Structure prediction request, 478 residues.
Amino acid sequence: MTSRRSGRPKAAMRAARHRGTGSSPAAASPVGPLHRLVADFGIETVLLAAVDVQGRLKGKEYDAAWLVERLRSGRLAPEMCGYVIGTDLGMTAPRTGAFSWESGFGDTALLPDTKSARVLPWLPSTAVVLADPVSKGWPHPLAPVTVLAEQQELLAGVGLTAMVGVETELLLYEGAARDAAAAGWRGLRPVTWDNRDYALDQPSAVREFSRRLRQVLAAAGLPVEAVKGEGASGQIEVTFPYGPVREACERHVLFKHAAKTIADDAGLTASFMAAPSTGVGSGLHLHVSLHDVDGRTVLAADPANGTELSELGEQAVAGLLTVLPQTGPLWAPYVNSYKRLGDHSFAPARFAWGRDNRSCAVRVVGHGPSLRLEVRLPGADANPVLALAAVLAGVRHGVEAGLKPPPATRGDAYLNREASPVPQSLAEALGAFETSEPAGELLGEPVVAHLARVAHLDLEYHAARVTDAELERGLTQA
Prediction:
């Protein structure tokens, strides 16, 4: 690998085109070539969408028949303003960089993948087609999907592929988002009022939301594994089945779109903030397994039924503990993200690892072929595309360098003073990211500079605003 990479990610071209959809489905399937879905499901509207830096769908709505005809004839060259993959949560544009006032906000071409076409049962007569941002005929090097695709290709270069299962938490509040906005986001009331972790006696609003969510996702070919109550008031967790990395990310992006839509239809607000209120945190846990070129799992020393890590498994853990501390903006991208990472919060506060230990940043769980690494650092606000890019880069670094991890933590990892603490703020994480040699080597300097620029936008937004906490503490006491 060339030091401090900066060229086009040519190796990512194949992965960027591949979406894990398999062969053409039967006519009754809700997933497949667009023309078939339009005919079989009475589709009227198609969302042509790319995934932005924040992990949201961004694009345009098209008349379905018109789009099918244009795609068939090759007379459609879709584009969007390139700043969509270069702005912050509020769509604030930077002054400099690839997508900025300095650049003039030019368009970025999109490469639609009609194999990704999928009916969206939570919207009437609507389907989605995912598209990759393209620059001069190549996947755009700064698009999140390209960053991830390149890490997949580089991991394949050391003979490994990854599979991932995602667990994500969210908060449900009474009242639609428009009502909460009108009230200045104050007085939000969670739909439950106590700890309903694993509870099966949820209020009707939670039961109906869960039922409707599972129903529409299954109808879209995106079935969930389980939905459960969580520890904070109004909090639930959704677990998805294992799958290829890109497929898992796209599943999550579509799930968030569905969850917010269903909540709004029910007069509720679904929030994926990492820390929506003081003392409350929502995570995005990534369960990662590794496989060799023959598809065999390689993390367990005893592939049949072992719980101990193989030498390669230890290298992967060591790589994660080395690289994740230097790539915080990929898995904790906002000022708010770091308010989740506190002592005894079920979110990690130290870069420790251990066997089936939920106080660790990296939890080794399962046995034999199911042995996997659960990365517990990302919050629910993270874009899984970028978080997994950091994870795969860390795994590869550990394997290539033959790293050895520190001893596994037994007991309370929050008290393990041998393990370095997680960053306490976005500013701290960003400082480490921008000056990190491994981040520049593994991700490429242009990617580091681009994502750092986006993180600075969030810092600048919050630095200029007076918060309720500041008023409460200082209005009369200062």
Q: What stands out?
A: The longest strand covers residues 161-174. The first helix runs from residue 13 to 17. The domain at 10-143 is CATH 3.10.20.70 (Ubiquitin-like (UB roll)). The two ends are 55 Å apart (CA to CA).
